[in-house]
Amino acid sequence: MQQINGLLEAFPTMRYGVLVGTSDRKSAASPRRRPTIDDVARLAGVGRGTVSRVINGGRNVRPAVREAVNEAIDTLGYSVNQSARNLARGSTGSVAFVISEREERLFEDPNFGLFARTFSRELRRSGRHLLITTAGDEEEENSLGDYLTVGHVDGALLALTRDQEPLLQRLQTSRLPFVVLGKPLGFERALSWVAIDDEKAAFTVVSYLAGKVDGAIGTVTGPLQTSSGLERLEGCRRALGDRFRPDLVETGDWSLRSGRHGVEMLLRRAPELRGLFVASDLMAAGAVAALRAAGRRVPEDVAVVGFDDSAAATMVEPALTTMRNPIEQSALEGLRILDDQIAGRVLPPVHLVLNSELVERSSV
Amino acid sequence: MQQINGLLEAFPTMRYGVLVGTSDRKSAASPRRRPTIDDVARLAGVGRGTVSRVINGGRNVRPAVREAVNEAIDTLGYSVNQSARNLARGSTGSVAFVISEREERLFEDPNFGLFARTFSRELRRSGRHLLITTAGDEEEENSLGDYLTVGHVDGALLALTRDQEPLLQRLQTSRLPFVVLGKPLGFERALSWVAIDDEKAAFTVVSYLAGKVDGAIGTVTGPLQTSSGLERLEGCRRALGDRFRPDLVETGDWSLRSGRHGVEMLLRRAPELRGLFVASDLMAAGAVAALRAAGRRVPEDVAVVGFDDSAAATMVEPALTTMRNPIEQSALEGLRILDDQIAGRVLPPVHLVLNSELVERSSV
DNA sequence: CTGAAAGCGCTAACAA
DNA sequence: TTGTTAGCGCTTTCAG
Fold first, then answer.
1. Gap from B345 CA to D9 C1', in Å?
2. Which residues of B touch A147 (CB under 8 A)?
3. Inter-CA distances, B98 with A76, A95, B140, B164, B168, Å
4. B84, B136, B316 member nearest A87 (Cβ)
5. I want to staple A50 with a disulfide (CB 3.0 to 4.6 A). Which of A46, A321, B88, B237 is the partner?
6. In this structure, what are the phi and psi dihedrals at residue A93, rounded to the nearest 5 degrees?
7. What pTM value is reported for the model?
8. For A61-84, what is each residue's pLDDT tens digit?
């Protein structure tokens, strides 16, 4: 489809040149073996343990000695071998942020970005690292399960956007500390998790909508096998009370396209539609497009509210009234719970529910 | 700002209970020590080496014995200790996908998603794993440098979206194999990279625009310290030839907001504007919004083309004519080059330039 | 085909 | 404060 165009100073088709020995690693005259702690110790004229102390904070080492060691480290270009350290310590210093989602969508959801940033920042404070991994399909999930349970990381934070029973099942029987971001359907009591109160949030935004609009209100939901999809629908139902019309419910899958399609169906069934609760901003963007294509003005003819306060919310015309989720706080709490688990405290599963807040814009 | 709302079955504020011993790891009667390869060997009644062979493919092991070993593995719930394996093997089986970008933006760019997915898939084929890491600011970058050079990964793929000299500098002097995605300004000759031909792509799309539109054509560029920002402007200039108007150039930063702002400035200076090349779809989305706010119809009054074919391209009304980049192929090539480096082949830096293709939609 | 043994590079406990 | 010494759990020769 797309093809290699030009190549500067290279010969990509000829498997770029010059082998220089596949295994100079441990051959004879150490043609630049990576220096070890012993090399440093020897050069600095100290014991191995002393070097270890220095590279681990330098406590209990005479300043002069520390100085010498650091010098040796610099001249040798030494850096620790992480694998060796992990083995000796029994921990890795990294935790995984697992996103069980097709990468396409993953990178469209700003919530993930905020999660990632928050985790990353907090972990760095304690000298650890965040690894982000994804699992879009079952195969990836298996591979991921291997990865996680095999000791690559000290713990995991799981952002599940759909049912993930296989992975959860597997992790549950492993020794890996982990906490779920979002309510894990079917594992609510067994696992630790932190989630937003989808039901309440949906109730809030739909109540707002219902207060501004007379006439028929419909909804495009998320997937009904997910806890978020389900609860947002519940919240909508509760907010609407008698005005709730089961015939004005369309099920989406969080995608823009499904939002558009949902509204087309709704409009066909109920041309009198005046208000719309769409369970995600991305779907809402599709919904607005469909509305406009059908000649409806937003919000004059039909008012719409979204959910998530994602980038799509302000990308659309008019900008969406929506709910903003406490992502950062979720991240912090999740990490705290995880650290408790990592610290070896055996504790009952912890469940946290956080509130979202209404963001008023111009789509209502 | 947002607050803990409710808590089910948990006591988050009291640092959730019950310590059960911080160090039962190696204490006395192995209160469930993680089983090792020796445990398996003993149970299966074979030597340690045999178990190792089995868990590494089982070649050169009698089927019966293999059977026995696998059984022992199952009953013990054994899984390899990755750190030990890494140490023994001298490699980790994972490669990093480094994105030097604020996470906000990161997760808005679908290109990253496609990169990630492609890497992930390919690596899995060879039994390896992809780790995604980000570096938004200098501090993170340092931390990341530590991480990468310390032996956590076998190699790295770097998606740089702005000048990254410090990180590149540092990596360059390390022993870590890596290749850059996108042209690394200032390191063009020293490092291996694969990039799209921004100049040519911009030329293509702007030529298309110029062919459809009479009158003034302006542009909102990317950041001019990035190679993409620069080259897209170059391509635009070349395509426009005499029609290029230096006064109709606004510099953006890839963000939606900057696209909007750029167009506002342009419109103020040149109300006669008839065509617009915006160097990214996200900015183009902002541009379209600004245009509409100013009462201009797209494309009737002013035609606009974007770049990237990102999600924003179809989220906007009208859908954007834009350039689609050969992300997947870039990923594949990048990985291939990286693997050559990892394999220990010492080779001159490799540079690949790939072509983008025009996607016609309705914004022109 | 299989067992034994020698590391991989580092940490941490223990003496000194 | 320091050096020494056991491991950490696995892979990989090397005999057999």
1. 30
2. 129
3. 27, 16, 11, 12, 12
4. B84
5. A46
6. 75, 15
7. 0.82
8. 898 889 999 999 988 888 889 899
